[in-house]
Fold this sequence. Notes:
By secondary structure, the chain is α+β, with helices and mostly antiparallel strands. Helices cover 30% and strands 22% of the residues.
Amino acid sequence: MRHERPAPPSRAPSAPARPAKPSDSPDLNPKSKIQNPKSIQILPPEVAARIAAGEVIERPVSVVRELLDNAIDAGATRISLEIEEGGVSLIRVTDDGRGIPPEQIELAFERHATSKIEAVSDLGHVRTLGFRGEALPSIASAADVEIITRAASEPVGVMAVLVDARVVRRAARPAPVGTSFAVRDLFARLPARRKFLATIAAETRQVTVLASHYALAYPGIAFQFSSGGRRALTTSGDGDLRHAFAAVYGAEVASVMLDVDHEEEGVRVTGLAGPPSQNRGNRAAISIFVNGRWVQSRPLTFAVVDAYQSQLPVGRHPVAALAVSIGDEDVDVNVHPAKAEVRFRDERTVGRVVRRAVGMALDGARVVSWFEPQAEGRDPAEDGSSQAPSLEPGEARTGQRLSLRLAPQTVQGRMEMSRAAAQTPSAQPAHRDLLPLLRVVGQMGGTYIVAEGPDGMYLLDQHAAHERVMYDRLVQRRDSEGARPSQPLLEPLVAELDPVQAAVLAEHRDHLASLGLDAEPFGDNAYLVRAIPAGIGGTDVVSELRAVLDQLGGERRVSDPFRRAAATVACHSSVRAGMALAMDEMRRLVEDLERTASPRTCPHGRPTLVHVGTELIERQFGRR
């Protein structure tokens, strides 16, 4: 039986309703928006090719990477890269490699055509940079391509022009052995993709970064990169990584870089790592190459940064160029369309070896030194002196004649000369040149210890030096599972904390307990304190505890939670600036600093000492 709905009550007549607009009555049914659904069909080849091109070619830098990979795989010793308008209007890569035989030119632009692999088993032992066989057809689908190539066995070269991935013109042309690719009007026939490109300056920067990384990865190849007719990068190709590094970052930075060479558990790490004084505001200056391939690996980058833990100021990152060599069976390079990432069989082992390799190199970092700038208009050849490096932006000057710089010459003596080495020969390896033998002379301003070394005068920041000593003691006690360095209170104290301080204490309670803090919850945001870390205290223990928690809550320079807590406790357990020290106390502090693992910086990255060379002092007095 069908039930009739009761009629609605009558309403007063009203004005005629206006016609509804599409926006007035939104359609809540998404299916109604589908107009004329089509059946499944296979896309035309030209459409499929342009879609597939987007998987490999995202922007001009993608084209540059693919062409550089092919040039390196062809055995090139010289590579020239030229771009116009960020690579949108022109990308030209010229190499002196093996070239392409005339009969294989058309075949090179077929999809999945490659000379790098032949069988599935080859994917487990890829020794080339380009191996997918998709680069050239993808580039030809996204732009117009002109190729000029000559194989060593051919008397003359061949020129071919491709439009829409098809050869439209081909002719013989005189050419040297090698290949030259010219890619013009990228994404001209794909306006939807072109409109999502960045500005010309941004695209140029991406290509410049890529070219710089490749120059560091292959110092044996002479690279030349120009943008808009201006030369941006040139390397000699002599095989010396330090020379290539100088071409990218400058001779001043390259001269102080530390050599890295360490092999362990089938992983070898070589290259250059910057001392803590050379740092950047981001991680772009960290270049990592796995079996010759530049990769963007978060675990390896973190391993490099972690090696500098407690040696860099907050927000600063190291400079490094590291080559990781590992067996083909332990790394998979076939995990990213653009080949920018790799996967390791044992990621933790590789990261641990990288960190240890960089850490060992940092042991050879030079002491920060005062350096004399060259006077204006003065010829360095007149007195045999060298031009002093200029200050970088934001670097503080220390007077009109002196500036704080890292001296290019070695300024430290042998570790065997130090009293600490004689007393504790097993504390540090004998080959580590960390600090010279220092003779304490006195104290300046109640803050700096003045000491004499074999090559000049040293100024030590007593707070930073003592902070490093206390930090290493706290870490060693934890590692050796010794007694906790705590000082019990005669009577328990109730510490009223604000919510943030209480949260910090709850987060780091176990780590602080291992450092000597005995505190238990005692109501809302309150703790009953029975013992505090040794060295912390004074007249107001609760205020000091609050200060520790405030600093710990804002600490971001040390990544490991325990070491972060240890660095904070060490800071509050150290002697302060302005505190007068007896001669014996200063000598003991210098001796203790010599025994630490990283005596040149405090746990937060500030230098513990600076060096004023004898030669510089003599110049100030006119003796040179």
